[in-house]
Amino acid sequence: MALTAGMTAQANEMNDTTVISKAEKVTIMTSDTLQKIQVVGQDGNADYRYEKSVPLNEYKMKKLRKKKDEKETTYFEGDLGIGVGAPTNAPEGYGFATFKSWEVFFGLRYCYTPKNALQTYSVGLWVDWHQYGLGTNKMFVKDENNVVSLADYPEKASRRLSSINTFSLSVPFMFTQKFGQKSKCKLMLGPVVNFNIYGRINNSYELGDVETANRIKGLEYRPVTIDLMAAFQYNGIGAYFKYSPMSVLKTDKGPQFHSLTFGLYF
Asked: How high is the pLDDT of residue 89?
């Protein structure tokens, strides 16, 4: 009878192989530890039933499921940088002061991370403000040909401050490397293209009880400059470094100094 029932079922089983012809319904249920296969009905035998449970490797199944679910991602990321400046390559006599030179930038980046990758590529738009402040007893002035040079403060002037200020719209092209899928550390590298749209000289000092402030416009700065930027972040907080191999002012329009800033990056 057992042999007859086996022939009636028309299922050929050899070792771990089962062949079922024209099954009416096949159901496969999978969990992290078990896979269950259920067959109902087959050609000429609506009452046929077949079930088998197969234990699975839990770690491998979770890994495969996670890999299947992972997709490429795109998102927007906000940026804020606050740093001090240390202008370089300045001619003799132009003593820029680090803590009188500042940079603040903020904006958004559009980020793209390929599937299963630790690398992210991004492009964005930042608003950037620079101040390059002197640490000497001189102040910036500009002549009728828009050439920037140095001049003396009025005698007995106190609380003296002289700086060149620029305002830019910047486009960063950044490459970001994470140090693991769950790592909170990342390194960012890339160029930042600055479209400089405004610049002026700010001079202020006091004579006795009188405070004087001068705003001198019409600077001939370079309309486009490029910074090389690097940043390291841990859990969204880090430090950045930016350097421009290009001078801030146009050739023959003032001291040829380069922008160098470093500070906090959020």
From this structure: 92
Q: Is 58 left (phi over 0), alpha (psi -120 to 50) or beta?
A: alpha
pLDDT mean values, one per 10 residues, the chain (266 residues): 37 58 78 78 79 70 54 90 94 88 98 94 98 93 95 92 97 96 94 97 93 94 97 96 97 95 97
**Residue type, position 253, single letter:** K
Give me the pLDDT at residue 8, please. Answer: 38
Torsion sign across C-alpha atoms 110, 236, 224, 127: positive
Q: In angstroms, rounded to a whole number, what is the distance separating the alpha carbons of residues 68 and 50?
A: 29
CA distance 184 to 237: 10
User: Which pLDDT score is estimated for 70?
Assistant: 55
Q: Which of 261, 171, 152, 168 is nearest to 222 (CA)?
A: 168
Contacts with 90 (C-beta within 8 Å, 6 or more apart), sequence order = 96, 255, 256, 257
Report residue 71 as tokens: 């997709």
Give the model's pLDDT for residue 33: 72
**pTM (predicted TM-score):** 0.71
Q: Which helix (H) or strand (E) holds 165?
A: strand 158-178
Contact status, residue 234 vs residue 199, Cβ threshold 8 Å? no
Rounded (to 5) percent helix, strand, coil in the chain? 10, 65, 25
The CA dihedral of 243, 244, 245, 248, to the nearest 10 degrees, is -140
Contact 205, 157 (CB under 8 A): yes
User: Residue 26 and residue 13: Cα distance in Å, rounded?
Assistant: 17
Return the C-alpha torsion angle 82, 87, 88, 90, nearest 10: 170
